[in-house]
Design a protein that fits this description.
Elements lengths: L20 E8 L3 H12 L4 E4 L15 E2 L7 H8 L1 H19 L8 E9 L3 H13 L5 E2 L11 E10 L2 H8 L4 E3 L4 E5 L2 E4 L4 E9 L12 H4 L1 E11 L7 E4 L6 E5 L2 E10 L8 H10 L4 E12 L6 E4 L7 E5 L5 H16 L19 H15 L14 E3 L4 E3 L6 E3 L4 E3 L10
Parallel strand pairs: 1-2, 1-10, 2-7, 4-12, 10-17
Antiparallel strand pairs: 3-6, 4-6, 5-6, 8-9, 9-10, 11-14, 11-15, 12-13, 13-14, 16-17, 18-19, 19-20, 20-21
Helix pairs in contact: 1-8, 2-3, 2-4, 3-8
The chain binds FE2/S2 (inorganic) cluster.
Length: 432
Amino acid sequence: MDSFWTKSVTLPSFPAMKHDIRADVLIIGGGLTGLLCAYQLQRAGLDVVVVEANTIGSGVTGRTTAKITTQHGACYHIVAKRYGMHVARQYYEANREALEAYNAIEGDLDLKTCDGVLFSRTHREVLEIERNVLCAIGAKVEWTDAAELPFSVAGALRIPHQVQVHPLKLLNAVIPTLKIYEHTRVREIRGNIVTTDNGTTVTAESIIVATHFPFLNRHGAYFLKLYQHRAYALAVANTPPLERMYWEEKDNGLTFRQCGDHLLVVGGGHRTGKPGLGWKAAEQVVRHYYPDARITARFATQDCMSLDGIPYIGRYAKHSPQLYVATGFNGWGMTSSMTAALLLTGELIGKPKPWTSVFAPDRTIWHRQLATNVGETLKTMVTPTVPRCPHLGCALKWNAAERSWDCPCHGSRFSENGKLRNGPATGDLKKG
Ligand code: FES
């Protein structure tokens, strides 16, 4: 399903890699994370190469709603409870720097600065707790109304000076000076040498895996630390324009942002491979509250979810010092992609960010979500149905809304004909 964004922007194409090369840094993955890392590293003076298995921006980047914000749901009171107020403050600082870095990119990104509003339809007390933590860590926040929304709310918090962009225009703004190879899939990584599917090699001092879900199973146990999640977006015309961006405090809640004469509404999220309503949840909201609206596009997002709600950015694993990773953005990939770019650039030029340790991929895994992930994987592995997922062998489930085979274990997805749509699997379904 084409996203809303691809209708207005065409990205340039790049050749496949035809000969062996050397670079300071190789980035695997030409989505927003990989390209922002390349952009920041190149600005810092490093020689960087990006390889992409398909075409740049063809994965989750083209299916975001592109809200860039320091406020990732009602996240700070949860981080403070788990890790303390100091870590909550550092997490806020990282997000704030990421937001500032977007403002520094030159070019036509359709960038707009506006308020973000975190609202709850039922639980004002959650916002009260969140607000207390935000005030304690020095974040700007205040109570507001949400009179632009077509329903009443129990409470709403205004976070000023947030940002929204056109994600593909953003890519166009950062790629002009980058070395990019498309249709170049990585087959193997041995030390500092990476071999591609067509037999060419890249030798690099450092390698960043920016493939949404990390595809190397041997290191880092990402198949335990991550699961994937789908959410469904509608582009809607003929609605009263919204000045601010909105997102709901609860899991799988609604979000709203204006883009030109369209309203983007997201809802109906669920773990990839589990039953869900598809676009029906967002559609019901639109039909009920905007009876004159016209739905002009539908697209779905695929998000990697970490165990504790904080991304994994840093060393891929203890025993692979040259290898780095950026993943687990929990639905806030626009902000976290830039956080990853700033953090990894700081690491690789020897000027680490003060908040680097917050994102360390080797931090504790002992969270309730781990038991859920393990339980889901074990249950799905012993389910005796076909087809099976080529990643680690779980039973795939049919997603009727999107006509795809989806894996509940780690979120790989395949078309009706077995073509790979989303990793961590790296190939199509076997025939027969
Ligand atoms: Fe891991 Fe399917 S994605 S088994």
